């Protein structure tokens, strides 16, 4: 259900159009739940590349890297998931592999920008020297707009999908595809059956994955800074700096410091 745009497909297909074509490296940026892993699965199934080897590299996972002796001479599509989880040793090896991509090969590398140790540097803090023959591209995944949420809701809820429900779904999830899908699953299974009201969407609660992500990030902050997050949740909308600090109960200096974190 988490559909993705065709730009990434077109970018990588370019590398496989000719066995002598220069390699392509595609960085895919997206916050949690926007569909990065789903996009990689779609790219792995590119119908125009039946003779290209697929290799998965799941960063930070035990056994997630390709074997050291796996061949890289044949045309290869390397699918690198969650590079923000990689440690320094893994990043060093990945950089070597990407720099050595052969003609007719490509790599797609996904990451959460908000979790990079060095902002804007998915492969680590030192700038990578990209080979001249390597084409480097970037793609950024975005939340769904209301029309896309409506189509997903119609697919799951059928006749119970109302304009009121779609608007509430978009507001509650921010259009994050994974959160939309999870919340729709909750509404589909609820009893009495969902009738399409915003009140029912609100009463369904927060999807487990979303709740755990928010809590883990909140408690990764120091205890002194957490009240600012709680204040933002209470205000539930855009707020000025001084209003946030006042609701959080922090003084001017601690509040300003918390905002910078």
TrEMBL record:
Keyword Nucleotide-binding assigned: yes
Annotated GO CC locations: cytoplasm
UniProt-recorded name of the protein: ATP-binding protein
UniProt entry tagged with the keyword Ribonucleoprotein: no
Recorded GO MF terms: adenylate cyclase activity; ATP binding
Keyword vocabulary terms for this entry: ATP-binding, Nucleotide-binding
InterPro entries: P-loop_NTPase (IPR027417)
